[in-house]
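Blackboard transcription, Thursday session:
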Amino acid sequence: MSSAHDGAHTPGSPGGRTAAGATPQGNVAPHPTDTAPATTDTPSTLHDLEDLTQEVEEEAEHRPPPAGPATNLVIAALVVALGAAAAVGALALGAGTARTPGPGIWPLILGVLLVVLGVGLAATARRTSDTEQFSRSSWLVLAGLATMLVFVALIGTIGFEIPAVLLAFVWLRFLGGESWRTSAIVSIAVVVAFYLVFVAALSVPVPHLF
Amino acid sequence: MDLAPVLDGFAVVLEPTNLLYCLIGVVVGMLVGVLPGLGPAATIAILLPITIGIEPVTAIIMLAGIFYGAQYGGTITSVLLKLPGEASSVVTVFDGYAMARQGRAGTALGIAAIGSFAGGTISIVALSFLAPLVASFALDFGPPEYTALALLGILLVATVSSGSRLKAVVAACVGLLLATVGRDGFTATERFTFGNLNLADGLDFVPIAMGLFGLGEILYNLEQRHNATQAPTKVANVWPSRQDLRQSSGAIGRGSVIGFFLGILPGGGATLSSLAAYAVEKRRSKTPERFGKGAVEGVAGPETANNAAATSSFIPLLTLGIPANATMAVIFGALLVVGVTPGPQLVTEEPELFWGVVNSMYIGNILLLIMSIPLVGLFVKILRVRPAILAPITVLITLIGVYTVNNSVFDIVLVIVFGVLGYLMKKAGFDPGPLLLAFVLGALLEDGLRRSLLIFDGDATGFFTRPISGTLLVVFLVVAVYPFVASLRSRRRQEPAQDTSDPNTKELV
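(Written on the board underneath:)
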């Protein structure tokens, strides 16, 4: 999915870590726990470290593969659209003049800047490799979001206890893959603990049913 | 220097209630900080609600505790799980995790705690002397100077943030735009509120910080699912041996100095200083081949440096009111929430608050040292709890916590919206740090710009005729333009090579 010449790079490190004016570091950095970072007495030691740092971060995060230029173009278009909307809204507020700046002048500057930056993003869309694909597990995020929306919709009317048990249960059983028994016990225990801390001990005015 | 306010500050900090809150802060900060994927900025953001409703000084002392606890929490996961909580403890992984695999995890954590304590303390002493000087210098700053300073601060943070520079600037602009929502301070016109009464007073900082850093990070982790790394069952010998201490004392000393000076710079001060400290230790060592295989100096140096840097990055915040990185932006917002406006007038007008903040750092640091070593066993147990169980608990803490700030359901909606934004930004390669920083500085920047235009009678060249604002803006232009020139030059040189560097590549400035 990534453009050809950036294929070797992983997301999060667009175009590699080669610093401005430095000599390109073609060598592959060794694995941190197996070998020591390449020992050189040149200033490039810091760059080697940066490469290693990058590796550790990636290993820790297990990031999915980068998305293609199409996604990058969509992102750029969204930035342009946001800038344009801000600029239009700012003009409606009245920009005033430089001598008597109106309420819209600052949002107008920002809106125009965003449009320019968005065009810049579009121009570099083919070379951008730090965007991630949505994967099948992105659905987990949508499900998690749904539980939160249910929570916020219900808390005003029936208090926090039942929505919180529901949220915790869904996250444990379906998003976290815990067993039915663990999920049920933990979700109820967590909400009881919250009740004791927030309502009984601290008497925080959270909407509650009991 | 007048010592009386300094000593008064100590008297305040040493009150039993304040000590207790600091203790709670350190422990809770460490507890949340060890959760995988949550760095200090996220930890402090999630814990913001617990400081609300407490006396300002007490709340600040608690925040200092949370701050140090959260920093150390990241170190614990680096050493035990190879999962750095934030960029500045990544280098700790090289030797820390290697030590853990040799069964010396306790020593690594112990030396990290001692180094953090030493670096932090040296940095606070230096800060106590330097901060009032900087503040007195900054007292003469007018709107043009603040405009230039805020612009430069945002740009520098965008420059050294992780990922693409172009995207970081986009994020900063979005943050500035979000800061304009609400009633305009000059004309009382409602801007971008869409008739919603909840937005009339502008967007609140707390739900944005909690959403972007806290919830965004949790949603992102939900998708990534960390491979279940097993934490060691038992961590023994937390007290480093005399030989370990002798080996790392030099590293701790050098780390403190490196950290203090690099930390004052805006941007990734803590990250850069931990890298620099590691590089220096390795260069100086007679046996550099031990590095990466469990050299104790490789843990002591960076851990000392990042804590020293984290402390000295309070200098621009407390004296100029300009946060130097994302974590400082969260602290800045937290100080605003408890009713303290950081800036040059803080030292002279509210000395007891200023010295309260500074001295609370000593206490936070000491409590960190005292608590971290005996509590290591407890944190190891927490690390063995599956992330799947911790995630919903963190979500509920966030959702209920944000409600308690203003007793507002609308704030829960906001935190969810910004949580989704934070997740999408992370997917699309945008660092949320610059957005939050720019949001915090947005009002200051717009205010300064419009006041300056009024002062200059509409003539924007006025910015360049004043010496300080002129200098700052020239630096701004150099930082903004240099990468394009440099990348053009390096691309020409590298044309035959495959490793073409993008104009938006992050560079080590």
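Lecturer's comment: Chain A has three domains: 1-63, 69-127, 138-201.
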